[in-house]
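Students often ask why we bother encoding 3D structure as a string. The short answer is that it lets us treat folding as translation between two languages. Here is a chain of 474 residues written in the first language.
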Amino acid sequence: MGKYKKVGKKTDKGWNVSTISTKVVVAGILISIIIVFFVSFIVSGTIRNLEEKLIGSRLEADMNYVKDLISNHDDTARWNVKGDTIYFGDTEIGDGTREKANLEPFLEHYSKTGILSYVFLKVRDDDPRLFAARKQKLPYEPAHYFRVAGSTLGEDGVSILGTFITKNVAEGLDRSGEYKGEANVAGSAIYCLYRVLKDSDDKVIGAMVVGRNVDDMNREVGKAVVKVALFTLFVIAIIIGIIFIVIYQFLNTIKSIAYYLKQLEVGIIPDNRLEIKSFAEMNLVAESINNLVRYMRENSDLQRKSEMDALTELPNRMSYDQYSEDLEKYLRANPRSLGVEILDIDYFKQFNDNYGHQMGDECIRMIAGVLLKLTQEHPKVYAARYGGDEFVIIYPGSLHSEIETMVKELKKNVQKMAMEHKHSKASDVVTITQGVCFDIFSPYASISDFLKRADDALYEEKKIRRNSYRIVQL
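And here it is in the second language, the structure alphabet:
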């Protein structure tokens, strides 16, 4: 019974981890966190590689630029040694003395860019200069690459010449022809690229190094890294945004389906189709629900037709029997007041005999219309056509005074319709007589008992007068 059926238990509103919405949101957050960590891991590796590539490419460009300055942009120039002096093409680079050191290109590059650059001549291990250097108390172990020219300045502002590369750098050059790393040059931390110099016979005759101040380089690389990081964060934000848009759409779809199904659960068949513009699977679910609703609507229409009186469009006797059965079950579990009324049309046989059966049907429809208005104004009230010109009205949970007021209004409203009935002994218009049984519903009683007692009251009243009512107890 729709009006008295308990449709569900009351639940506390709040964060319920068992709901699919919560699970999907949590899953979305976890996925987002995983993506952030995964992307951060990739980006951190990418940034490290980027830093190395940026530093390497900068130093490579520096080395090529210094070579171009030395050779006056002669691409055919080759490194060679004449005596103790190293040359690049025809340009004399130096022998470790200031007199023969070609400092201009190195100092020019340093003044423009702050890039340190110098050239070493490879000497034998028994070279007297190396032997003398090893005897000195130096903070490093010198090896067989002798500085002959460059832009590295000492504390006196003079280019540092006549010194040697440290042993670990020399070993790296001998092993692979290249060495990268930080070095302390004239009191500054410098990141350097060392590369061997070969003559036309592919013989290693020296080495060249370029270096940038570590702090300056970190600042430049940091700017590039910040751009990459910001772009990466932007991409991550877009990905997370897309994830949550998809989650939001999915949750809205689920909520729409759940709301639609909730209406079906409480006995409401929605008028509109369930329209879902979402995932293909959700569309299939929606279509299945729409098919189910269509079948339910067809069955409901058939049931409504079977339970509706065709003449009056009020519930018929079969519908009344089902309603009273459901109501009786409810009242046994929840005892409360109950009023049951039965009414009929005064002198209806005379009306039919004199005005015809067609007008008789109109008279019954008029009474039904008044009853329908009563049920619309008082949603708890139930009215049905019991048979012929008899109608039953049920007032569940109403007070005696409320029922008497509605009974009087019903009688007055029928009379107000002013349908002519000259053959009535009660009035010159159609009227009704009503019998009502009111009492507290007892677990030992039935609605049939109330109806029988109301029917007795109706006939007791009709013996005395018409166009009136009688209210009795069970």
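Translate back mentally: The chain has three domains: 75-215, 269-305, 308-472. Keep this in mind for the problem set.
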